[in-house]
Amino acid sequence: METRRTSSSRERMIRAAYELFEQRGFEKTTVDDIAARAGVGRTTFFRAFATKEDVIFPDHDTLVASVRERLAAATPAAALVAVTEAARLVLLHYLAEGDLARSRYRLTSNVPALRAREISGQRQYQRTFHAFIRTWMTSASGEETDAGTALRAELMADAVVTAHNHVLRQWLRGRTTTPEVDFDAAMAAVVELFAPQPAAERPGPGETQVVVLRTQRDLDDVLPELKRVLEGGGSP
Amino acid sequence: METRRTSSSRERMIRAAYELFEQRGFEKTTVDDIAARAGVGRTTFFRAFATKEDVIFPDHDTLVASVRERLAAATPAAALVAVTEAARLVLLHYLAEGDLARSRYRLTSNVPALRAREISGQRQYQRTFHAFIRTWMTSASGEETDAGTALRAELMADAVVTAHNHVLRQWLRGRTTTPEVDFDAAMAAVVELFAPQPAAERPGPGETQVVVLRTQRDLDDVLPELKRVLEGGGSP
DNA sequence: ACCACGCTGGTACTGAGTACCATATGGGAG
DNA sequence: CTCCCATATGGTACTCAGTACCAGCGTGGT
């Protein structure tokens, strides 16, 4: 099969690149070296990978696309779980890679050019999440594009990507053996940060807001203070 | 003066680069072109700027250093204002640049290589803020390195940088004429997000939490509901 | 047998970035 | 005034990433 041959030579180039980068280092390895070790021509390499750096992130475009698809398939009501599941998609991919992911982490940690490339790639995830969260937030909280909402969407997209990276890095460093559990916790923290109703938000005229209290003090002790606060707020 | 001559030729190279990039585009402009227009040799260009991209971000290292210094000079009690002021330092720098900043924005928006470079640069700000916020948070909330705290520090550093970029971008696009006011609002939103006591945190035994309420309803109407909620919470 | 098409490898070119050397300028020591 | 040293500069030659182009080769269809 042609596709199998193509895929095979592509796989060989990836393996050759990782091996050579680990042995000689990224800068000391030329594309000719990689192509020669993979048994292909230099032209073939650049047909499969646009740049020398790209061979380190072979599944990047596929992963970003799968995230986009997962988000696109979500209903507005299930937006939060869609975000979590889309991020989990990425995490599971890296977990499945195993040693390859660890090798990549070693390279990106030591080679500035590769680190820069990785950061650019992460930005693509951020943009994807941002686009989804923005439309979700603006459609959920009125038609007008609130300035605060726009910023919140951006912040939340950042938080999702950073939380994912945080857990992944912990696993790559061998700091945890339960990355999925950590991931759930991290995403829960993110969702809590950006929960639909933050406490300090002031309600508009005509709206009512009920804030849940839990206190150790006797209710009768709290009431006068509450009353004072509420009257100070300007509402009868 | 030598330093003036050096500074002058550096300025000439920067101006020449911006002009040529705007005219012919980034890829169609060679380093030789820039050097020739600036009246210097190619060697001199690479002595002043490590890469062709770097000429677009001439003050980057200086800015990052000034942020680091501002943060280093902060007392733990004034950590939040230090973060805000450090970020404002960057904003004010770009505001002072004026048209140059707009020209850079145009370039980074259209040239992928320059955009990637900019993103890497922003990551340096994020790392700087992160290092500061991490030590601040861990020293403020106990000695042990809490996993949740580590993530929170990272998220907050992201938020600071993103909030700054958000406001700056609004100004670069001509969407606002009061960037400093917007900046204060954005930073306030960030600080509120990561304020020491987020609303949804459950108080430990013996602690008391008072939540500010503003409501349009009559207080007597609200009280029964509050009482019900409080008793449902398990506290007498 | 012939042709059309897709994949491949080779060659030649541009241009970024590096290494090295030669020169000028400028200031200080004698 | 002259010698000397340091620093900035310009030029040359080289490596290598990335691009463009062309030629071969197998496969499949007619």
Automatic annotation (TrEMBL), chains A, B:
Segments forming domain HTH tetR-type: 7-67
Chain segments annotated as transmembrane: none
Keyword flag DNA-binding: yes
DNA-binding region ranges: 30-49
PROSITE patterns per record: HTH_TETR_1, HTH_TETR_2
Domain of life: Bacteria
GO molecular function: DNA-binding transcription factor activity; transcription cis-regulatory region binding
Keywords: DNA-binding
SUPFAM superfamilies, alphabetized: Homeodomain-like (SSF46689)
InterPro entries xref list: DNA-bd_HTH_TetR-type_CS (IPR023772), Homeodomain-like_sf (IPR009057), HTH-type_TetR-like_transc_reg (IPR050109), HTH_TetR (IPR001647)
PANTHER family, per database record: HTH-TYPE TRANSCRIPTIONAL REGULATOR PKSA (PTHR30055:SF226), HTH-TYPE TRANSCRIPTIONAL REGULATOR RUTR (PTHR30055)
Name this protein carries in UniProt: Transcriptional regulator, TetR family
Species annotation: Nocardioides psychrotolerans
